[in-house]
Design brief:
mainly alpha, flat
């Protein structure tokens, strides 16, 4: 409940922030809190990825984009009620979706019940001696391929945007 309260407070902070720098910092805080949630849920690999990519790389890229644009922010006169409403409805839908989940820490959940099966059968079924690699590369191969494709596409998009920005720099055009 503490982590959910922190997430809700961070969400409100993002919605109420009027400066892009504040939004970037609050997004990094949000990523760290989500990484902590994943750590509590024993998903250490997801927690490390969220901390590294969500809070680390994304924050650096967004701060770099803010630095490169060097534009003044336009003061917004819009109300924050619509973003808060959308965020509240989304949070409500997500919380509603958790009502059918088993209690936290229950030993009868599928990951707890089927985990030993993966440990015992992974090498025989996949031919891969490392269980983590077997799960990621074989059992969840399409999921992992999709994640890699998203990361690759995002990286290419960032490179294209940064290249386009440099090409428009008047100092380079004169030289």
């Amino acid at each position: 409940m503490v982590l959910l309260t922190l997430l809700a407070a961070t969400l409100v902070g993002v919605a109420l922030s009027r400066r892009m720098f504040g939004v970037v910092v609050m997004a990094a805080v949000y990523s760290f809190i989500i990484a902590t949630v994943m750590l509590v849920l024993d998903a250490v690999d997801v927690a490390m990825t969220e901390a590294a990519v969500g809070a680390g790389v994304s924050t650096v890229l967004l701060l770099g984009a803010l630095h490169l644009t060097k534009a003044r922010e336009i003061k917004q006169s819009r109300s924050v009620l619509l973003p808060l409403f959308v965020a509240g409805v989304t949070a409500g839908a997500l919380l509603f979706g958790t009502l059918d989940l088993p209690p936290f820490g229950n030993a009868d959940t599928p990951p707890q019940a089927h985990g030993p099966n993966y440990m015992e059968r992974a090498e025989a079924e996949t031919g891969i001696p490392n269980v983590v690699t077997a799960v990621l590369a074989s059992y969840r191969g399409f999921d992992t391929l999709g994640e890699v494709a998203v990361i690759f596409t995002a990286g290419i998009a960032v490179l294209i945007l940064l290249r386009r920005r440099r090409a428009r720099d008047p100092e380079e055009e004169d030289g």
